[in-house]
Task: structure prediction
Amino acid sequence: MKLVSAKPMLEKARKEGYAVGQFNINNLEWTKAILTAAQEQQSPVILGVSEGAGKYMTGFKTVVNMVEGMLDTLNITVPVALHLDHGSFEGAKQCIEAGFSSVMFDGSHYPIEENIAKTKEIVAIANEKGISVEAEVGSIGGEEDGVTGTGEVADPEECRMIASLGVSMLAAGIGNIHGQYPENWQGLNMEVLKEIGETTNNIPLVLHGGTGIPNAMVTEAISYGVSKINVNTECQLVFAAATRAYIESGQDKVGKGFDPRKLLKPGYDAIIKVVKEKMDLFGSTEKA
Ligand code: 13P
Result:
């Protein structure tokens, strides 16, 4: 199976009332775990790559080659999109060139007119190649220098403007935050989500900051048009915990327990487990 645009898989999800997970990748183990989970669950999946992770993996082209190689050698038959997460204007263009099948251009920090102009330009380039585009309105909060900010709430009118530019999906801040949620988090703003859903002509909506949102809130958000949910931190947390348990129990000192293929296996298994649980929760299992 070749990489596919996220547009048809998300339109199907929106119509049928479930969400497709975007799981961020960092390396070979992450990628293999997420693809394996998707295949076993018969679920469509979106592999998210931040610009930082792309750099870490030595560049977007390497990422495309690694993922395409795995689709082939792992016999992946479910739909897989390779998506740039929170891309800059230049980053989005580079990923389109490198062979990504989907990009996010995050212009949420620009004034709305500039966000519109830049989003339009990316849509024009991506459309020519059949690549899906995610735009963002109302930036997603998150931890920065140890300070956790409250997620911004998007203006539904600005969402309507950006949604009408031919983008495939729209990320709108509704009080969601990247990373772990603080104790005093107010929850997702369902009223605003409902309003955005009503003013954006059934465009698939994207929920960032998927780690730590209570299950009932996730299900409710899906009922108002959320069709793509991004999860990153949760996979990192379970990977780290499983690796810590392996080392703390001294297993790396038993036989060839230090072999990286053994050392990284518990973390790899932990990612598979989380991704499968999310697919069940989001309703994408058996929707390939
Ligand atoms: P979390 O790290 O909070 O799961 O958020 C992921 C995300 O939204 C990536 O864009």
